[in-house]
Amino acid sequence: MQFLPGGYSKLQLDIVGFLAILGEASVESSARISALSKSFLLPRLIPAPQALIRASRPERLDPAIAKVVGAYSGAQADRVNYIAHLLHNGDSLKPYSVRCEKIIKEKSPPVKAKSLGPTTLLAFLGCAMSCTLLALSIHEGDGMALLATIFLSFLSTLVGIGSQWELILPERTATRRVPRSDVVIKYPNGAFLIVKCKEEAARSLYWSPEECRYKRSPRWYRLISLLGTLILMFGVICLGNAGLNVQLGFAASYIILNAAYWVVAALPQRWNWDLRCYKKEREYYRDEERSTTFTTAMWKAIAISGTTKWVKLAGIAPVSPAWDKWLERAAEVIEKEPCRKDDKTGLHILPDWNPEEYLTAVMNEDDATTQDAHREYQGSMEV
Question: I want to staple 148 with a disulfide (CB 3.0 to 4.6 A). Which of 159, 239, 243, 282 is the partner?
């Protein structure tokens, strides 16, 4: 059996041009944070550069689905801003778990991309690939390969110029007094996150939308996108007419880069962000973080926050007489016995109350009352 009957010189790699446009999903996952860094302007090879050439640019970062409510202010939102979700690592919360964190906004550098994050290392890797292929093209005396390297490498710089942006988190300017700014976040899986913070942190993280402020106007961006599309097509054409040795180099480069981009896409996104301006402190409680039922989880969140107001405002608890009694009793318990900190262990202690037993009791009582009323109604109908 012969795999190359015509020998090495008959090996066809015209398909190598397609390798240059594969891997779009992995490139898209890191494109936004990459454009925050100056390394995004490096001339370099990137897989699927067409993923960076869009007709329009998003105006804000993607939020996470959750209910956000001010424990005392009553403010509400139906999403968690992207930066807040990253800061709290909300994806790590298990169903019916309850966590409490304290956020302090410090006067540090603003939220930005890490100088040496995974996406920056990808930029350096792509730049190294371009330099290697450029040297190989010159060594082989291959003009088409040289043009392909130049076109496909400087395409990333051109797209980077059009995609550069900065993140704007609104700052609180008023000085008037406001209610306590603690925030409760309820995730779809029944988990609760209680955030203790001041209004400055709450305003920038939870209540005001994040703004993506681009450095180039939409008109310039569309012009750059058009030019980038043309350069990509010329680059692929030149690559298809390059010599065999350089095509092998391009094929190896794109295979390595695709693998690297997929690895980075699988890493936690927070590894790419510099969030030093927000100091996060975890508060630990004697009870386990994870609960077995939603009722117990909600009771822990109430006890930690110190109020039941947010439960009614956000419509988190079911609406029924039994649940109203349960919430009234929960409010009485935390008023008489608020959470306290054990000086010896450093753990916070929740009030001693069984929310499941009390809910069962009031629901049975409510059911018995309903049955009695039904019997009286049937008796009156028979008479």
Answer: 239
Whether this prediction's pTM lies above 0.85 is answered by no
- Whose tokens are 């898209």? That residue is 28
Mapped onto helix, strand or coil, the DSSP state of residue 101 is strand
Q: Residue written as tokens 């310039």? A: 220
Neighbouring-strand partners of residue 98: 192
The closest alpha carbon to 272, from 100, 129, 113, belongs to 113
Whether the Cβ atoms of residue 269 and residue 86 lie closer than 8 Å to each other? yes
**pLDDT value at residue 371:** 46
Q: Judge contact between 44 and 123, C-beta under 8 A.
A: yes
Rg (CA), the chain: 29
At residue 116, the 3 state secondary structure works out as coil
- The per-residue pLDDT for 373 is 37
Look up residue 61 and give its DSSP letter: P
User: Of 213, 163, 170, 167, nearest to 53 (Cα)?
Assistant: 163
pLDDT in tens, 63-117: 999 999 999 888 899 999 999 999 999 888 999 999 999 999 888 788 899 988 9
Residues 6 or more apart in contact with residue 28 via CB below 8 angstroms:
51
